[in-house]
Specification:
The chain is of the alpha+beta class and 228 residues long. The protein has one domain: Lambda Exonuclease, Chain A (Alpha-Beta Complex). The protein is built from 7 helices and 9 strands; from the N terminus they run E-H-E-H-H-H-E-E-E-E-E-H-H-E-E-H. Helix 2 crosses helix 7 and helix 6 packs across helix 7.
Length: 228
């Protein structure tokens, strides 16, 4: 994995890193949640990602503005640091915040994730990831009573392990004045199935990326020819 550590999550530079990559929070667009296999919707998603690499659509900015104004996003930004401090005190683990993680050994891969934190050992090596959710009170109570990883985050959490290659991911749900939830998830067969599907996606995405960019290169060539 290639880890970015000096970019603020939510910044324009961070959005630029993510814009053309498949990220763990959106793996439901390319992988079936039940089996972790490549889904039928993956093709349209990878074409959209390839387009975003070089062409900006006004709709992109509108969609991002709506997301930024979402109340749950704002609530999470307010309480995530508090949940992180609770986790640090509760576990005694050494955690660090990172910007973005790219799957693979360099920063060129088309797949990544944005962990809420990473856990390091005494040598400073990454050993696990942390996903923090700060849902509304009723949802948090449901999570507490179920006492397991919520299904809606299964792809994201196992996706984090598939992206980073790590074997452990921590999940925390937090709501003020209620008991926090902490669950430890380990790599399993589902993680491996997901990892295989991501390999397939990366291979197919490379082909679609070239096809989409050929359209841009064609327009550029036409414009150049018109100016001669």
């Amino acid at each position: 994995m290639y880890v970015y550590t000096d970019i603020e999550q939510g910044s324009q530079e961070w959005h630029n890193l993510r814009s053309w990559r498949a990220t763990a929070s959106e793996f439901d667009k390319i992988i079936t949640p039940a089996k972790g296999e490549l889904s039928k919707s993956a093709l349209s998603y990878m074409r959209s990602l390839a387009r975003k690499y070089c062409i900006t659509d006004p709709k992109d900015a509108v969609d991002q503005e709506k997301l930024d104004k979402n109340w749950s996003i704002q609530w999470g930004k307010q309480y995530e640091p508090i949940a992180r401090d609770w986790f640090r005190e509760h576990t005694g683990l050494n955690i660090v915040e990172v910007s973005f993680v790219v799957r693979g050994e360099d920063d060129l891969g088309p797949i990544g994730c944005s962990p809420d934190s990473m856990i390091i050992d005494a040598n400073g090596d990454y050993v696990a990831g942390l996903e923090i959710k700060c849902p509304c009170a009723d949802t948090h109570v449901e999570y507490l009573l179920d006492a397991k990883l919520p299904n809606k985050y299964k792809l994201q959490v196992h996706g984090g392990m598939a992206v980073t290659g790590l074997d452990v991911w921590h999940f925390v749900s937090y709501f003020p004045k209620l008991k926090p939830l902490h669950i430890i998830i380990e790599r399993d067969d589902y993680t491996e199935q997901l990892s295989d599907a991501l390999d397939q996606f990366a291979e197919a995405y490379a082909q679609e990326f070239d096809k989409v960019h050929a359209l841009v290169e064609w327009v550029t060539a036409e414009q150049k020819g018109a100016g001669e």
